[in-house]
Amino acid sequence: MSSLNEILSFNNSFVESKQYEPFVTSKFPDKKIVILTCMDTRLVELLPKAMNMRNGDMKVVKSAGAQVSHPFGAVMRSILVAVYELKADEVYVVGHHDCGMSSVDPDKMIDKMITRGVNEDIINTINYSGIDLVEWLRGFGDVSTSVLKSVDIIRNHPLMPKAVPVHGLIMDPNTGKLDLLSAGNEHIK
User: Fold this and answer.
1) Helices 74-84 and 143-155, interaxial angle, to 10°?
2) What DSSP character marks residue 54?
3) How many whole angstroms separate alpha carbon 178 and alpha carbon 160?
4) Contact by Cβ (8 Å): 104, 138
5) Which of 15, 67, 78, 126 has the fewest Cβ atoms within 10 angstroms?
6) Are 60 and 75 in contact (CB under 8 A)?
7) Residues 6+ apart with CB under 8 A from 146
8) How far is CA 179 from the centre of its chain?
9) pLDDT digits (tens, 9 = 90+) for 43-76
10) What CATH number should be reported for the domain whose range is 24-104+139-187?
11) Does residue 1 carry a pLDDT above 70?
12) What pTM does this model have?
């Protein structure tokens, strides 16, 4: 069941009563940082609070598992836009313990796709076209390794300024505790 009507009804009331006013800010992050994090629901409010961030302080890019899966994909492009166009001068990659991407079984996901109506011929065509669908959908086993891989891709990207520190952290999604994996300032040349 769609929640569209409920959302639109609430939104109308929200705008009419000017509940948006406390959130008014500019498009430029006040603290000049961009955070790549996971789309996990537990982090929506916890992550900014645990990092002492408020609306307008940072740019947030979300992907399943806080992963940069391709150096020229949408996630990396978003980070570069934040740096070059929106004045961010520091990058944080924040993964978290108990991440759903650590247990994704691509074969089971493909079975779910078929069950929900994706034609098996389409899946076969994708595989035959040179895309390894199982590999593309695969999660990761260790969150630390995954965060450090994303940090490495960002830090060593040919279009990323070398003076921009890229930090790697892991959060406990229950308490908000952050553990530092890699301090970006130590890698500035």
Assistant:
1) 50
2) -
3) 25
4) yes
5) 15
6) no
7) 65, 66, 67, 95, 101, 102, 140
8) 18
9) 999 999 999 999 999 999 999 999 998 999 999 9
10) 3.40.1050.10
11) no
12) 0.91
